[in-house]
What does this fold into?
Amino acid sequence: MLKIFLVTNFRNLLKNKIHTAINSIGLSLGMSCAIFILVMVSFELRFDNYHYHSDRIYRVVVKYHQNNELSYSSGLPYPVAEAMRQYFPDLDYATIVDCNSGDPVLGVKEGNGLPRLFKEGKVTFVDPDYFKMFSYSWLEGSPDALLREKTVVLTESVARKYFGSTPAMNKVISYNGKFDLVVSGVVNDPPLNTNLPFRILISNRLGADKHSWDRWTSSSGAINTYVQVKPGIKSEDLEHKMQGWHMKYFTGVEEEGRNRTYFLQPLNDVHFDKRFGSFSNIVSRESLGALSLIGMLLLFSACINFVNLNTVLIVNRSREVGIRKVLGSSKAYLVFQFLGETFLIACMALIISMPLLELALNNADFVLGYNLPFRPSENGIVILLIFTIPIIVTLLAGLYPACAMASFQPIRALKNRIYGSSGGTTIRRALIGFQLVVSQGLVICTIIILQQIRFFNTQPLGLNTNSVVEFEIPEQRKNDLVSMKSRMEGIAGVEDVTLSNTGAVAGNYWGGDFETTVNGQKIKTAAQVKFIDEDYLKTYQITLVAGANIPASDSAHLFLVNEALVRAMGLKNAEEAIGVPIVYWGSKKGTVTGVIKNFHSGPLREKIMPVIFMTGPEFYNTCAVRLRTQDVKAVMDAIGQEWKTTFPQYVFEYSFLDDTIRNFYEEERRMSRMIMAFSLIVVLIGSIGLLGLVSFMVSKRTKEVGIRKTLGASTGSIMAIFSREFIWLIGVSFAIAGPAAYYSMEGWLENFAYRVQPGAFTFISGAALSFLIVFLTVGVISYRAATANPVDALRNE
It folds into this structure.
């Protein structure tokens, strides 16, 4: 019985080769995209869930209340972890995660006594509790590895890079040439889906080389605190105990303490909460939901092709149905028979989709920024869902055509008088319209994303970023920095040189509160701070709108401010700010000597904040050089040589400011590539189905076209007969897709302080592209029919 069933189904599939091929290709594209999105969403949802106690681990975060506004930060003062460890008995462990030291240079001594130098990222300082909280596989050492001072744990890849196959335990590594670290453990590399992607973890116990501060009023986004609660302790109860616990550390600055509320963020929420920063990328759950919806729409669009093609083939199979019913086949058996054919096609499509999926996963780096790992042993639920897809597709795509064919009356079927009902035509129109809605909606979304990215690249920033090179200053030795800067200024091809803490545009910033009194009113609010020298404005070509620049030797403690800070002080124009006294960080006092034009010091996602500029050689971490040369390599070699003269124990690396700014929007570019790829695929799936549907429609109306040609119908009028129905479907689908795309993209654009305003052109472009695709697909087939010899069509009459 099963053999007959399978043989019959395979014969039917082979009998309709084109129909089978079109359905298989369309379904395989839909399946491969749906599975790719399924794997990606599963990967994102499993961030940090491999830690054994992940349900009891929290990140301590803070909410600021200032000027009737709320702001959030994951950056905390250094002392918080130790204070919580001592204050709250509900905690098992607490640790600081300190990445505030940038990318240090680590040295490993060779046999000749000279060190090999490595400039490393993903380096952090942690407390010994870190490895008791987070799960690692130990290749050497144990979770107590960081109890001793100046010890370091390496991941397997770093240990191999430094020491090859030799055991790394007890080897010595120098840190920035300042002190030595002893390797006390080696662990497996963390997976890609973690918010703690560190490769080198150094004990925060550094003795006299401690690099932290004790102030509770100063914080950094690169300093996080994690805690693990005892079993049975609820986070809500601990948060209740945390209300006001910190006030004893804010003696003399009680107002700052009252403006802060510390609370707990579950470890499994770190990856999804865009209110806070992270050591990895942030992805909102809404974005994952939107991706999941796109995957379902792609799969449903492929199913629509199947439904449309099968319903128009009902007429061809009407006699087969009639004969089966006369011979005693029940309606249930016929439904089962036709569902079996659909299931076989779905299985074929799944097999075809596997190489496509592998190709997509191996090239996911272009879209996602990383190659998406897929290990069946770790993705049991995903594997189960993959094998249920053919069943889902069978029910979605095959149930209606199967029921429709099984419902034929035997007499009408044997006389071949099954012409399709108006209900079937309406369903086909609705399904095609749905495909057009999906394709137009994705196309419009793609256009808006590309417009926003273009806006990022063309929006004036308020400074000149061309030909500016930036590099790190590892040590703040004032006299050496002045000498190095002077030597660099003498290099042919160098126009200007400046020193500062973070340059002009950076992904992170230094912040705090400033105080001033204007017209008898005390003002206190948050502001960025940039420590600069006298050549800062000239190098970055920033406009001074009032007052004077800060002098080379600032003994008078003069400050520059931007226009945003002038507004924050409640002043109407820049001139009124000159001479106003300001206190920053509670201890740095100065007078405003000049006001500069607002410029974007960060991504365009963020509003321009008030900024205070002051001198501070002890904080200079960045050197910027403006070039005026065509031979960039030769000039940079000369600059690098001068830098190495000052810092021989470090590794010289530089980047162009334009590239730094471009990297701000890499996430948006990846998103645009992904949405564009899915848009092309949904358009391709729709075109495949439309091509098959129109081809069938033309073949069924061949004699009608021949008669019309004989009676004098023009080629254009015949093409219009086939195109008319699809043109009004485009209009109706656009009326649905346009508002839906606008609503969804408005939500996305709200993430940017500076954004495009989608105009009519954006939406008309989406509709025009859909019209062009439909016109080409329908037009080519209908043109061939309209230009065919009518004698050939009427020969059999």
Observations:
- The chain has 24 helices and 24 strands.
- The longest strand covers residues 521-531.
- The mean pLDDT is 84.
